[in-house]
Amino acid sequence: AQSVTQPDIHITVSEGASLELRCNYSYGATPYLFWYVQSPGQGLQLLLKYFSGDTLVQGIKGFEAEFKRSQSSFNLRKPSVHWSDAAEYFCAVGPSGTYKYIFGTGTRLKVLA
Amino acid sequence: NAGVMQNPRHLVRRRGQEARLRCSPMKGHSHVYWYRQLPEEGLKFMVYLQKENIIDESGMPKERFSAEFPKEGPSILRIQQVVRGDSAAYFCASSPEGLGLDTQYFGPGTRLTVL
Question: Which member of A3, A94, B42, B65 has the lowest number of beta carbons within 10 Å of its beta carbon?
Fold first, then answer.
């Protein structure tokens, strides 16, 4: 069955530190991959997406993600975290050709001043 | 450049009442998707609609839940005779093309609390 795993429920980093949020998926072919961010009381904002091509994807707010087929991973990274990055981050898989996005359970990021 | 609009943002209902959640897609988008987020879980697909058509409702509970997207006006997710287990955040997303060809853009969600 298709699934998305975000192994870290909570992550705390200091402002200015680097960040990596993990995402692993289970799917037979190469899916569409997404990272969304949800600030408290807000909807989901698309950070970046991967459909095909270059496996290193640049997104908004200084985020990037790398698709690694051999590891079935799509980890999100940011070199220097800002306090405003504190939010919940969701990795999602959109099996190619379908609209039924499958979401991970999210990683809640806390940023220390 | 308004995004996906949902209202109300918060809705409180007593058990047995009806809940109506509304979603206006982004301008130019004719495809709407509803997802439910239960506490401590990721979003789960419920239903996919185009104007006046339900394309896929495979993720929606068979009873008490219904959805529509009329020719005019917003998409409506309706939950009849709500129970405590319906308490969740309900998100609407829209896309211009549909059928998995493009990206879904999400609204702020409606947080339903059933007392």
Answer: A3
